[in-house]
Amino acid sequence: MTAPQTPSTAYLDNMEELIAARVAAASPPPPMGETYPGQDELWDKAAKLADATTDDLRHIVFDLHANPEVAFEEHRSMAVLADFLEERGHSVERGVFGVETAFCTEVTSPGYDPDKHPTVAIMAEYDALPGIGHACGHNVIAAAGVGAYLVAAELLKNSDVPGRIVLQGTPAEEGHTGKEYMIRGGSLDGVDAAVMIHGFGYDIASHAWVGRRSATIDFHGVAAHASSQPFMGRNALDAANLLYQGLGLMRQQLPPSDRLHAIVKKGGERPSIIPQETQVEVYARSLQTRSLLDLSQRVDEIAKGAAMMAGCGVEIHWDPHPMSLPVRNNETLAARWARTQARRGRTALPANTVPDTVAASTDFGNVSHLVPGIHPMVKVSPTDVALHTSEFERWSATDEAVEAAVDSAAGLAQVALDFLADEALREEAHAEFGRHGAVSVQELLHREQA
Questions:
Q1: pTM of the predicted model, to two decimals?
Q2: Family per UniProt (predicted)?
């Protein structure tokens, strides 16, 4: 047996050099004076409360890491988090917004008026990847979200800050769009902004996330004996092969923002029979919503052309789970996040420091198109460790992971409280969001089909 070729690291090495130069040139934001009365005092209290949660957050980080559960099966993980909150006096609703493994709890300020006062949602993911567990660090996300809620809840109940803070446990992000199902179940009703974090090899206030659609493409041919009567067959594997080759050839015309991946999930039964049924699964990704829909249309056209050339029928099924949209980072709130992290000794890098070619997908994109939102990255691992690898899985259960969760708990709580207390911040965040406007996945698809 020959070994596979080891990929060259030349591109990554050059990219690391570029990023290192940008990081060296970056600096934390200058100290910020109070933007509303009592902000400094509130932030100091948030930092102390976050530090006091370290042991609890360590338990969550390591417990979830040791017991990974995949999308829509996170029953134990949800129970661990919900029980933890209930033990600390918070009422938790389980199985909310139409998703069995989702949960929700909330706190309001004294005298809260839903017609006058804003609401912030803190989001926590906790699903793992098949086979390699928490290689995306959702255990850290969960700990950070729960910690942020506990900190913010304690301060909201004992301050003059008006508003409501909601913690939403959001399952099924990996390969799915759990947040979109929750949105359709009403999770964002009455919510004015949403915040969460993600572990990474860098601290980044605002990073690119691509939208993603998936398609299952079935080709229907005519079976025949591959030796005695091949001319009586119509080879569905030929159609699958033509599709795969067509996608590959199209890549040279794709803009740098786009990505295509495909696998043949069903290719026939045995060589002596011309395959009657084949199936290909395709992921289409893009940094822009419009170009994602354009890319989807091209995949449709290539699939239909492949079927025609092979003399086969074709069925194209888009989005077995709803599409995820590119993240629309709210730069106003991201700048405030960067200031929270500077106080923790972290320099949260601005947008475009790390190239947007280093981009994955998340269903938080769907949230960010409906309310102002941030999804900053927090350093958990060395810079050369990629998400969705066994190396990152190991780093997501370390002291560094716990430190990231604690720093994030402080930062998310501070941003959430600022959003409620700082009217100027809130207005600027909404003005930025309003320049693009709210849009749902269903509205986008309806426009596309019209």
A1: 0.94
A2: Belongs to the peptidase M20A family.
